[in-house]
């Protein structure tokens, strides 16, 4: 491609609203343009990169015998009503009506549509397993679309769905997918870490998120520096910080229990301010209702209860916070004055942190009053200690004896779920097994943010001059800068090498514009093709062409005759670096 013909409107300044470096650079380099909030158009360079990512995804999906299909973006409401997600996903669904007032939505994901397809045509175990995938735009009315491709309202996803006859089959499909995902991210130049995650609205049992470490990432994960355990912050467990049975308290350090007047002080901040103690000296008593029964959950004042952990611990589906009336009924006091002392007949579950606390503050189950110098074991009994709060930096790793967890920001680039029968049950999607018995399909679903990968690559691979593309994702492999096209020697040598490169199948751009060298260098660095070729002074003086990598800019000089061979060698080395060895 000739730069003089290439449509790549680079900008001097990034858009003022851009916060993320990927948003800034992809816009500045002429890859994308914002059409509306969270909605982007790809210009030629951006679309080439997007298609390269899609190609890698396709190759790896095809390699595990997943078959490509293409489903509609427009979904009839009735399919979403079958799974109840028409209402459940109301917030993110773009809903619309046709001329006959029939309701539709723009697909944010395709479990409903694909399950409908399969239930119509697959009836026997002999037709299983099946893995179907597509690369398609998704629509989500995200509450906080973030600059650029990272969190858009229209974005490109690869979504795959597996249908198996039993759990073993699902396990095989799931593991094949996990392996394919590792290869895909590796080939895109991303080091993605599979982390345990919560299932969220998609539902299901086991699931892994693929996370790329990046300070700009919106997600948070905890990772153990010694054994590699990794989980997102919602899911991360922590090591029990004490041995059972708990030798908890030392008589000599316990101070006499005292009730104190705390007028109108209800929140942790108000109470601790008033009493002049830190939040770590206070224990919050949260009243929950689990399957209709009240229970008290004790959490240190500076920590936050992780409701998913509570749910998992209790093992019952219906767990919710008590409302103010229920709380008054139980504690005889307003929300904010609940405490463990005197709460009879209620299960008392305390976070691990509480085990190590002495002489703390709690509500007194009486309006405008708190207790100080509270000690569990002496003043009230804990039914059980458990891991109930969000894990944080420095907590002990739950999987090894000595490692500590580190909190890191990250970008979710992919997600694999074992769905089980969640959708096949609600949509009555069944097949007949070996014994002639009708069974629901055992399903899995697997997403990759194809457009988010492009943003993630830029986030982790850039410098102050612009993008540093891995060769697999770069819009062009090579960017050639003849520093003066009006110089016949230079122009001649450049044109000659350019046609050799094209002949050899190299994706090359020759910057044949009548621009100052400074402008050409700036654009080349901004756009970030991995191999740069400079034909200028050294060619005039010594007949040498300068070859350098965008990532280190160290020039090597090669004679014009050897240039092609040298470049082809370099190019294959760059691809080899990104070949997974598994
Ligand atoms: P997130 O937690 O970031 O909102 P999600 O968990 O809702 O994402 P999934 O339903 O798991 O997303 O979608 C699969 C993949 O699609 C994600 O791993 C992510 O890479 C990508 N993705 C999801 N939402 C967006 C978005 N709004 N813009 C760009 N990519 C997205
Ligand atoms: Mg996800």
Question: Can you walk me through this structure?
Answer:
With 582 residues, this protein is an alpha+beta fold. It folds into 3 domains: 46-237 and 407-459, BirA Bifunctional Protein, domain 2 (2-Layer Sandwich); 258-386, YbaK/aminoacyl-tRNA synthetase-associated domain (YbaK protein); 476-577, Anticodon-binding domain (Rossmann fold), CATH 3.40.50.800. The chain is 28% helix and 28% strand. Strands 3, 7, 8, 9, 10, 11, 12, 21 and 24 form a 9-stranded mixed sheet that branches. Strands 16-14-15-17-20 form a 5-stranded mixed sheet. Strands 28-27-29-30-31 form a 5-stranded mixed sheet, with helices on both faces. A hairpin with a 5-residue loop joins strand 30 (544-549) and strand 31 (555-559). Helix 1 packs across helix 12 and helix 2 (44-63) crosses helix 12 (450-460). The two termini are 36 Å apart. 41% of the residues are buried. The model has no long low-confidence stretch (mean pLDDT 94). Bound molecules: adenosine-5'-triphosphate and magnesium ion. Adenosine-5'-triphosphate binds at residues 109, 140, 142, 151-152, 155, 157, 412-415, 447, 449, 451-452.
Compact summary:
The chain has 582 residues and is α+β, with helices and mostly antiparallel strands. Helices cover 28% and strands 28% of the residues. Bound molecules: adenosine-5'-triphosphate and magnesium ion.
Q: How would you summarize the topology of this molecule?
A:
Layout: H1 21-28, E1 32-36, E2 39-42, H2 44-63, E3 67-68, E4 74-76, H3 77-82, H4 85-88, E5 94-97, E6 103-106, H5 111-121, E7 130-139, E8 154-164, H6 167-187, E9 192-196, E10 207-213, E11 219-224, E12 230-232, E13 258-261, H7 268-275, E14 283-290, E15 293-300, H8 307-314, E16 319-321, H9 324-331, E17 347-351, H10 352-355, E18 360-363, E19 369-374, E20 384-386, E21 405-420, H11 422-426, E22 430-432, E23 438-440, E24 442-449, H12 450-460, E25 462-463, E26 466-467, E27 478-482, H13 488-503, E28 508-510, H14 517-527, E29 531-535, H15 537-542, E30 544-549, E31 555-559, H16 563-577
Parallel strand pairs: 3-7, 15-17, 17-20, 27-28, 27-29
Antiparallel strand pairs: 1-2, 4-6, 5-6, 7-8, 8-24, 9-10, 10-21, 11-12, 11-21, 13-19, 14-15, 14-16, 18-19, 21-24, 22-23, 25-26, 29-30, 30-31
Bound molecules: adenosine-5'-triphosphate and magnesium ion.
Magnesium ion (MG) is lined by residues 209, 412, 415.
């Amino acid at each position: 491609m000739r730069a003089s013909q290439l449509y790549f409107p680079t900008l001097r300044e990034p858009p003022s609203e851009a916060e993320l470096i990927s948003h800034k650079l992809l816009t500045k380099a002429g890859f994308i343009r914002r059409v509306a909030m969270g909605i982007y158009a790809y210009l030629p360079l951006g679309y080439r990169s997007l298609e390269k990512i899609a190609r890698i995804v396709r190759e790896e999906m095809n390699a595990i015998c997943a078959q490509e299909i293409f489903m509609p973006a427009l979904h009839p409401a009735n399919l979403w009503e079958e799974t109840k997600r028409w209402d459940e996903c109301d917030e993110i669904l773009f809903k619309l009506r046709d001329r006959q007032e029939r309701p539709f939505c723009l697909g944010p994901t395709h479990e409903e549509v694909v399950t409908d397809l399969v239930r119509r045509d697959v009836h026997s175990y002999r037709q299983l397993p099946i893995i179907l995938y597509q690369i398609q735009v998704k629509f989500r009315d995200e509450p906080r679309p973030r600059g650029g491709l990272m969190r858009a309202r229209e974005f490109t996803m690869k979504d795959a769905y597996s249908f198996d006859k039993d759990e073993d089959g699902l396990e095989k499909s799931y593991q094949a997918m996990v392996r394919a995902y590792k290869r895909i991210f590796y080939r895109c130049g991303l080091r993605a870490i599979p982390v345990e995650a919560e299932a969220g609205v998609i539902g299901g049992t086991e699931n892994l998120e693929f996370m790329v470490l990046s300070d700009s990432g919106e997600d948070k994960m905890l990772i153990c520096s010694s054994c590699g355990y990794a989980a997102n912050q919602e899911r991360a467990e922590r090591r029990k910080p004490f041995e059972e049975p708990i030798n908890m308290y030392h008589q000599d350090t316990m101070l006499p229990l005292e009730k104190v007047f705390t007028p109108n002080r209800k929140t942790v901040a108000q109470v601790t301010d008033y009493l002049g103690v830190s939040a770590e000296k206070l224990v919050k008593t949260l009243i929950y209702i689990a399957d209709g029964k009240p229970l008290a959950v004790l959490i240190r004042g500076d920590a936050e209860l992780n409701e998913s952990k509570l749910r998992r611990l209790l093992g019952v589906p219906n767990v919710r916070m008590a409302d103010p009336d229920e709380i008054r009924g139980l504690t005889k006091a307003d929300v904010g004055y609940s405490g463990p002392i005197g709460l009879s007949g209620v299960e008392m579950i305390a976070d691990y942190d509480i085990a190590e606390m002495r002489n703390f503050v709690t509500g007194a189950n009486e309006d405008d009053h708190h207790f100080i110098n509270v000690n569990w074991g002496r003043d009230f009994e804990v039914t059980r200690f458990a891991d109930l709060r969000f894990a944080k930096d420095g907590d002990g790793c739950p999987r090894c004896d000595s490692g500590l967890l580190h909190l890191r920001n990250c970008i979710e680039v992919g997600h694999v779920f074992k769905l089980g029968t969640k959708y096949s049950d609600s949509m009555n999607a069944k097949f007949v097994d070996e014994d002639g018995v009708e069974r629901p399909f055992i399903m899995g679903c697997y997403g990759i943010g194809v457009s988010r990968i492009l943003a993630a690559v830029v986030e982790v691979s850039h410098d102050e001059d612009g993008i540093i593309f891995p060769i697999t994702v770069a819009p062009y492999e090579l960017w050639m800068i003849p520093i003066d096209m009006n110089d016949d020697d230079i122009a001649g040598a450049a044109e000659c090498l350019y046609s050799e490169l094209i002949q050899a199948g190299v994706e090359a751009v020759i910057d044949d514009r009548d621009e100052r060298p400074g402008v050409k260098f700036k654009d080349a660095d901004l756009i970030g093709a991995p191999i740069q070729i400079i034909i200028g002074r050294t060619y005039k003086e010594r007949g040498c062409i300068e070859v350098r990598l965008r990532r280190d800019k160290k020039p090597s000089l090669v004679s014009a005759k050897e240039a092609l061979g040298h470049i082809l060698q370099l190019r294959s080395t760059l691809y080899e670096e990104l070949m997974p060895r598994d």
